[in-house]
Amino acid sequence: MTLTANRETTDRSTTTTVIDCDIHNSLPSESALTAYLPARWREYHERFGQRGYSGTHYPLANLNAARTDSWPPSGQVPGSDLAFMREQLLDRWGVERGILLPLLGVGRQVNLEYGAARAHGINEWQIAEWLDPEPRLRASIVVPYEDGELAAAEIDRLGEHPGFVQVVLEARTYEPLGRRKYWKLYEAAVRHDLPVAIHFGALGGWPITGVGHPSFYIEYHTGQSTSYQELVTSLVCEGVFERFPTLKVVLIEGGFGWLVPLMWRLDHAWSKLKDEVPHLKRLPSEYIREHFWFSTQPIEEPAHPEDFLVLLDDLAMDDHILFATDY
Prior knowledge:
Elements: E1 2-6, E2 12-16, E3 18-23, H1 39-47, H2 82-91, E4 95-100, H3 112-131, E5 137-142, H4 148-158, E6 164-170, H5 183-191, E7 196-199, H6 217-222, H7 224-237, H8 240-243, E8 249-252, H9 259-273, H10 284-291, E9 292-295, H11 305-315, E10 321-322
Parallel strand pairs: 3-4, 4-5, 5-6, 6-7, 7-8, 8-9, 9-10
Antiparallel strand pairs: 1-2
Helix pairs in contact: 4-5
């Protein structure tokens, strides 16, 4: 983010502020969440715990998909030690604001009420152990997004808290994200002027491909962007942005090199099939350029760097690309 300051003199100076839009904070252990759960759910958490769909895990060579030097000296898992994160990221790189993005299994819960209790506990944990002790941090409201009403209730509970700057979902949901079951969530986000950030993850019970589960991790990893293509298409075609014209959506860890051909294809299809979707008043690409933002991690890295500049020109969304370390 570049801030230009006009001074009383005739000179202009430019300073650069580093805002990291993707910092993953983690629980040191599942037992650490117990103190932040509503009383009804503490025993459930200890006796039964999480119940969701199983799926592909990260390669064993990189536990938690973490860089090898990010394991704290305390022995905790990466992202669970605030002091070490301060030293390794905020202080070392002069990060003025960092946005926390915990991926701690809320959306994958098949027991939706437990998912809501888990979201409540994670958000309280973020306040007590991250936001209160470190003023440079902001956080994402974790919600049980498979139930629009429960998700909206959590957004309304925390939507005016100054430490929370967005709502976070994970990309592989049970249904396409344009479906009406998610609209109460979007309505609550708009009510509090909060962007909805969608990070790669979750499972949703479905394979990542349209024809079954892939054999290898490399297939799974490379195919992640297809989940984003579907959710962008769904949000546009279901008319979410006509219903919620101020909604902002941030796509994190999905890249954006696939976006230009998707816009071309959607616009071409709309020119022939617009009678099916009369609620769309504009070209699909116009909704996309207005309502979506993207993170730089992972960024496309072509063999010829000049090809990346061509991509940016075709995308015409330079001011919608956000810096992210994925720490």
